């Protein structure tokens, strides 16, 4: 079984790079989530996001993905999380999670996602990726984090989460 400890994360290279964006309505105490309709995590509850296109910065990808998936434009997204996923299949993914409490537009469904507002104290952990319950509450609280995860399909086998002062 692969574990966090037996991967050389210093030389690890991802197959793909992606972003995920959490939009919070602090006044209402809600978080925008989606039911993912396509690709990795299809059927799971997550947040808008997707692959970083060639020549695109992570922030540009975050804005574009929100516009494409939920018809919303996040304003001043702040990076709070770096995610490194290694799957036993050999697939690997590096992700950056962004957070904002300001946006333009109203959530609308797309081919990729069905958006909905969820109360922050009632997040549907049982339908989300297993790693989310470890890092998402801390990132929502404003902490900056770096996470390392090993998955077999959608089952988390191993993880390590580190709080950091800043991203280099």
What can you see in these coordinates?
There is one protein chain. The protein is mostly beta strands. The chain is built from two helices and eleven strands, in the order ββββαβββββαββ. Strands 1, 2, 3, 4, 6, 7, 9, 10 and 11 form a nine-stranded mixed sheet that branches. It is globular. The model has no long low-confidence stretch (mean pLDDT 96).
Q: In brief, what are we looking at here?
A:
With 168 residues, the protein is mostly beta strands. Helices cover 13% and strands 42% of the residues. The strands form two sheets. Strands 1, 2, 3, 4, 6, 7, 9, 10 and 11 form a nine-stranded mixed beta sheet that branches. A two-stranded antiparallel ribbon has the order 5-8.
Question: Could you list some keywords that capture this structure?
Answer:
single chain; 168 residues; globular; mainly beta; nine-stranded mixed β-sheet
Tell me the number of helical segments per DSSP (H or I, 4 or more residues long): 2
Ends distance: 31 Å
In terms of per-residue confidence, which ranges show pLDDT below 50 for 5 or more consecutive residues?
none
Radius of gyration: 15 Å
The ordered H/E elements are EEEEHEEEEEHEE
Number of strands: 11
Largest beta-sheet characterization = 9 strands, mixed
Class derived from helix and strand content:
mainly beta
Q: Average pLDDT, to the nearest integer? A: 96
In what range is the share of β-strand residues? 35-45%
* Shape by Cα distribution: globular
What share of the residues lie within helices?
Answer: 10-25%
């Amino acid at each position: 079984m692969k574990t966090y400890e037996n991967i050389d994360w210093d030389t690890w290279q991802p197959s793909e790079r992606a972003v995920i964006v959490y939009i919070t309505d602090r006044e209402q105490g809600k978080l925008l989530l989606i039911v993912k309709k396509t690709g990795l995590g299809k059927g799971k509850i997550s947040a808008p996001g997707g692959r970083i296109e060639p020549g695109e910065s992570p922030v540009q990808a975050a804005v574009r993905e929100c516009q494409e998936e939920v018809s919303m434009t996040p304003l001043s997204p702040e990076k709070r999380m770096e995610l490194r996923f290694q799957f036993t299949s050999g697939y690997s993914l590096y992700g950056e999670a962004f957070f904002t409490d300001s946006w333009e537009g109203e959530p609308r469904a797309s081919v990729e996602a069905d958006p909905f507002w969820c109360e922050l104290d009632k997040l549907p952990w049982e339908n989300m990726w297993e790693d989310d319950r470890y890092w998402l509450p801390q990132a929502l609280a404003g902490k900056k984090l770096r996470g390392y995860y090993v998955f077999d399909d959608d089952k988390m086998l191993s993880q390590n989460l580190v709080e950091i002062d800043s991203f280099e």
